[in-house]
Amino acid sequence: MMERPLYFEFPSNLTVKKFLNKLGKSQDFEIFNQQYTIKTFYDSFDWRLYGAGINCELRQSKLCSELLLTNNKTGQLVARVETEDVPQFYQQFTDITFAQQLAPHLEMRALLSVCSLPLETYQVNILNKDQKTILRLRIDEYELLNNRIEICPLKGYEKAHKNIAHFLQEKIDLSAAPYSTVLNEVLKQQGKRPQDYCSKLVINLKPDMRADKACKLIYKQLLQAIEINEVGTIANIDSEFLHDFRVAIRRTRAGLSQFKNTLTEEAVTTHASFFAWLGKITGKTRDLDVYLLSYPQYKALLPLTLQNDIAPLYDFLVQKQTEAQKELAEQLSSYEYRRQLVAWKEYLHEKLPSETLEANAGLSIYQLANIRIKKVYQMVLKEGALIDKDSPAEALHDLRKTCKKLRYLMEFFQSLYPEKEIKQLIKSLKGFQAILGDFQDYEVQELSIKEFSTEMMQNHVPANTLLAMGVLVQYLDSMKCNAREQFSEQFALFIEPQNRAMFKQLFSVKEA
C-alpha cells in the first residue's frame, strides 16, 4: 500500500533557498515547476465541511486552477475538479462525482470563501542515480506563515518516502504538522476560528443565577444569532440564513411567553409584538424556500410520465420566492425594523435593579426552569391524551406548538441538568415532534399546491402541469394521513414509563 502524504513545517528562520541548499548536499533533485499561487479555502457559513473532516481549497496559478477536497487531518485527496470559478451550490457542479462528495455535507448551504492567502509554490523531484524521479516534494512559501513541505510518495519507491521523512526530521530539524494547520493559522491571524458559528443553542447557566439575569443572558445569545444571520437573510445567500434567523425569533418569542414574571410586563408586551411581527414577515419567504427545497421530492413522487410536466411549478415557485424575498429584504432594511431591534438590544443591556420587581425574577434560574418545564410537560401530556382518531387537525397543530415550547425550554436550560439524561429526553421529544411536524407540513403543502394550481391556471399553464400537480396533491394527502395514523404510536413511545420517570426526576420543583 502506498504511503500517504506527509507534511512538515519549517522553523520561522528557514527560507526555501536555505532549505534547498541543505537538501542538495545529500539529495539529487530538480525544481520542475515554480509559480505564484493563490490559495482560497471554502466552506458553508456553519462549517459543515470542516465538521465532516474535509478541507475545500481552490488553488489558482497561471498554469491551472483546481478545486480540491482533502481530508483535513491527513491531506489525502478526496476529490478534485478543474474550475476557474467556484459554484455556489453543489448542484451547480458539472462534475457529478465532485458534486456527490459535497452533497451529503453541504445540503442546501452555499459554498462561501473563508479566507485567501498568496504563496510561491515549488514542485521538486527527488532523483536516484539513474536520474529517475523517486519522490516528489511540494514546498509552499508563505509571506505571513511558516513555510511548509509536503512529501508526495510514488508507487514502488516507498523506501525513498521514509528516508526523506527521516532526513527532514533528523538533519534539518523540521516538525511534522497536521494538514489543517494552514487554515487554522490564517484564521487565527484574522481573529477567526473554525466552527465559530453553530446554529445549536449552547448556554452555560449557573443553577443559582437570578432568573431575570439568566433570562436576559438567553435573550442576548438569541439576539446574536439574529444579528449574525441578518445579512445572509437580506442577501438571500442560502435558505439556512433565514431558517436560523427565524429559529432565533421563535425561541425569543417562546422565552417571552414562558419566562413568566421575570421581566416587566411592559417590556414583554412591547418587545413580544415586535418579534411577532418579525415572525409574520419572514413566514412567506420561508414557506417558499421549503417548497423549492422540497421540489426534487415532489418530482420524485410523480410517475415518470408526469415528472417533466411539473417543471412550470418550479419556475412559478422561483418567481414567488424572488418577490417575497425582495419584500422581506426591504422590511429588514427599514428604519422601523432597525429601531425596534436596537431598542431590544439596549433593553437587554440595561442594568437589572438590585431589588427584583417581578414575582419570579428573584428565583434561581434552576427553580424557574423546573417550574416552567414541568408545567409545559404536563400540558403536552394533557393535550396528547385528548387526541383520538376523530380529533380535528387543529388539535394536533396546537399540540405541536406546545411541544415546541417544551423543547425550547429544555434547550435553554439543558446546562442545568445531567447531560446524558437531558439529551435523551430532548431526543425523545424530537422524535415525537417529527410526526407532528410531518402532519402539519403535508397539510400546509397540500393546501398551498391547490392554491398555486388556481393561480397558475389563470396564467394558462399546460393542462398536463395541472394534472401533475393534482397527482402531487393526492400523494401529499396520503402522506399526511399516514403521519396522522402514526400519532398514537409515537405519543405512546414519548410517554412511556421510563421517560415519565426521568421527567419527574429531573424537573421536580426543588432548590438549586
Describe this structure in words.
With 512 residues, this protein is α+β, with helices and mostly antiparallel strands. The protein folds into three domains: 184 residues, Beta Barrel (Hypothetical Protein Pfu-838710-001), CATH 2.40.320.10; 147 residues, CHAD domain (Alpha solenoid), CATH 1.40.20; 148 residues, CHAD domain (Alpha solenoid). The protein contains 17 helices and nine strands. It has a nine-stranded antiparallel β-sheet, sandwiched between helices. Helix 6 packs antiparallel against helix 7, helix 12 runs antiparallel to helix 13 and helix 14 packs antiparallel against helix 16. The protein starts with 5 loop residues before the first strand and ends in a 6-residue tail after the last helix. The mean pLDDT is 93.
Index terms:
Hypothetical Protein Pfu-838710-001, CHAD domain, 512 residues, nine-stranded antiparallel beta sheet
